[in-house]
Design brief:
Order of helices and strands: HHHHHHHHHH
Structural class: mainly alpha
Helix content: over 70%
Largest sheet: none
Length: about 260
Amino acid sequence: MPNNTPNPADAVPSATHVTEEQGAEIFAEKNRIDGLNRIRQLVFGSLDGLLVPLGVVSGVAGGTGSTKAVIVAGIAEAFAGALSMGAGEFISGRSEAQVQQTEIAKELAEIRDAPEYELREMAILFEHEGVAPEDAARLANTLVHYPEAYHKTMVEKELGLQVGVSTVKIPEALTMGISYIVGSFFPLIAYFFLPIPQALPVSLFLTVVALIVVGIIKGRLANLNLFRSSLEVVVVGGASALGGYLLGTYVPRLFGY
């Protein structure tokens, strides 16, 4: 009976068959995914930029009834919040990357100082993923002849990290800060043109619309149900806005204001 099992080697083109254009396409896909990873900063910054200023301006509007006070508080919070969020993202992301670099350096030192132990560890990691023991040993013994691939594989499988992690977090910080400042525009803009009784519902409406847009963006990028994604964002935002308004209205009364 003929053996119809495909040979894995036949499915993988040799290095001579990989053109420069194909290599560029592979790395372009990686760069695309790296860009999509900034969705965290985009959504985080947008949500905070919508919800925190909304809570502030709604609270100040309910507590003081002064349009001037609302605008001053809103602008001050928007810029302070954007700078704070951007700086926080830069420092926290950089700190995380520095810790990861330290752990990667430790792992690479272990590979250098205890190569046989690390080689056995590599085989065990493959076995843990369902590779047969003989094949796991064969894979490990093959990779050890290619230091760059071996180091990357060991770091990724044992630590769950990527070799070459960058400590330059300026793009992430800018994404966070810009998202925040853009988001803060929606809850504040109505107070420039309308008195508080009319501006408050318009501010809430514009914020809800912006939250829906954020939910749609998140849903499209994550391939989620757009309605459920938008509803999730709106519910969280609505709870935050309501809490800010109630606190701004009733807490000052507790102190006689």
